[in-house]
Backbone:
């Protein structure tokens, strides 16, 4: 029996178009070691690690007539050099040039006739740095338990040996059209309703497909839309174009922890309050009318992990476990108080809203979105993107994902990773998504924005830094 895509994974293939590519990714910056860190090293490292994630050698094969969902098959002509690519900035390349390159790469759809991932080694960065940009389609997330190929190449040891593959990989023969049709007929007998839905999906346009996916989720969307007041309108919800802009911001984890201790909140509350303050100032910089009661609604997936779980996910020695994230996941709809001008009050309001979700049971509806999707989210960034792409701007204005990362240095072929910025895709009519990851004492904000709707995303990124400084200033206040 063929390895068939889940209903949710298949929906991301159906829903994808040139304005909303359905891949997640990241931008990681490494310090080049004395032993070098070049394309050949990266290529060899990934080649040896692909056995840990067989999905990366598989492509999607459609079933004739769309009778059932597509299947995963080994790529008979798999070419690792197609997926592992080399790029360079004009020396000495700066961060702005790197971010422009990341935005251009993230704007392009992945080739559906090949395995749905790409990785770029970017050379030419100043200060003896190199970058790795990754892209992985969300259809792959459910099957392999990892956001992107970048996780496969990381180790917690600088000089860890990369063993050769146990055996030469040989692709399994693809199923014939006759075999696929026989399997489809078998499924038709066992699940006739599903076949009808798949045929409809095969001939429907994108709007009808969205409706199909919504119905498949058991009516949760309609229940939420009637139970939750629609999100406020504003510049964060505009028609999505084909191109993106990417900007970043940074903070120190110890600084955010100090704010947390001073005000009795959580680090996630502090991150949300920082984003809230930055959005407030950004709206004001645009000449928007910001009233005291004004809010911006965020979709906020939240991960809760114990210290033991974190240590199990990121051990002190050995390689980084592929696909391991640990922890429990909830997703909240939070109204960020951008109308509040006082930094401390703003933080307290965000903390109260997050506690109210947890204590009142209002988070059940958002958590149900995850459960009915039929998958265990491998990472919070992927979860947020999947939920966002199914429910879009009628429920929220901006997606904010905050993923706790390892607080130990990670390496790829001896090169130490200095920074890691997530790139979370946009949903329809969304102008901004904010991915946040903590790593080795730092907190890294990746802002993925629509190029037309947010030409000033770099201004917002700078205001995140200012909002962090404002937060730090409250510790001694």
Residues:
């Amino acid at each position: 029996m063929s390895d068939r895509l889940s209903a949710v994974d298949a929906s991301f293939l159906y829903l994808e178009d040139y304005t909303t590519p359905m891949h997640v990714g990241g931008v990681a910056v490494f310090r080049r070691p004395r032993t070098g860190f070049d394309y050949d090293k990266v290529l060899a490292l990934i080649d040896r690690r692909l056995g840990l994630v067989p999905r990366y050698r598989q492509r999607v094969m459609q079933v004739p007539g769309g009778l059932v969902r597509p299947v995963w098959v080994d790529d008979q002509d798999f070419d690792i050099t197609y997926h592992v690519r080399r790029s360079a900035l004009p020396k000495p390349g700066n961060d702005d040039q790197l971010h422009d390159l990341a935005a251009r790469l993230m704007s392009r759809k992945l080739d559906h006739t090949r395995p749905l991932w790409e990785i770029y080694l970017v050379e030419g960065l100043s200060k003896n740095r190199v970058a790795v940009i990754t892209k992985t389609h969300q259809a792959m997330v459910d099957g392999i338990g990892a956001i992107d190929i970048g996780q496969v190449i990381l180790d917690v040891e600088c000089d860890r040996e990369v063993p050769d593959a146990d055996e030469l990989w040989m692709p399994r023969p693809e199923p014939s059209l006759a075999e696929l049709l026989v399997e489809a007929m078998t499924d038709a007998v066992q699940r006739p309703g599903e076949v009808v839905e798949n045929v409809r999906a095969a001939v429907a346009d994108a709007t009808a497909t969205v409706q199909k996916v919504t119905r498949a989720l058991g009516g949760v969307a309609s229940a939420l839309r009637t139970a939750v007041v629609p999100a406020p309108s504003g510049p964060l919800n505009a028609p999505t174009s084909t191109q993106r802009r990417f900007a970043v911001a940074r903070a120190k984890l110890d600084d955010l922890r100090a704010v947390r201790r001073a005000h009795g909140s959580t680090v996630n509350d502090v991150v949300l309050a920082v984003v809230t303050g930055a959005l407030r100032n950004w709206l004001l910089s645009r000449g928007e009318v910001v009233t005291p009661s004004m809010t911006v609604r965020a979709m906020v997936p939240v991960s809760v992990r114990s210290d033991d779980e974190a240590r199990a996910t990121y051990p002190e020695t050995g390689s980084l476990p592929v696909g391991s994230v640990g922890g429990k996941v909830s997703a909240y709809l939070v109204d960020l108080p951008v109308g509040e001008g006082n930094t401390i009050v703003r933080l307290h309001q965000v903390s109260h809203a997050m506690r109210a979700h947890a204590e009142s049971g209002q988070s059940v509806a958002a958590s149900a979105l995850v459960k009915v999707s039929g998958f265990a989210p491998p990472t919070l960034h992927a979860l947020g993107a999947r939920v966002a792409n199914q429910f879009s701007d009628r429920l929220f204005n901006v997606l904010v994902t905050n993923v706790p990362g390892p607080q130990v240095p990670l390496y790829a072929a001896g090169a130490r990773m200095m920074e890691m910025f997530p790139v979370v895709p946009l949903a329809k009519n969304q102008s901004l998504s904010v991915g946040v990851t903590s790593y080795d004492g730092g907190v890294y904000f990746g802002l993925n924005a629509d190029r037309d709707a947010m030409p000033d995303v770099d201004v917002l990124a700078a205001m995140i830094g200012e909002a962090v400084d404002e937060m730090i200033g409250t510790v001694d206040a």
User: Anything to note?
Assistant: The chain has 16 helices and 15 strands. The CA atoms of residues 87 and 122 lie 5 Å apart.
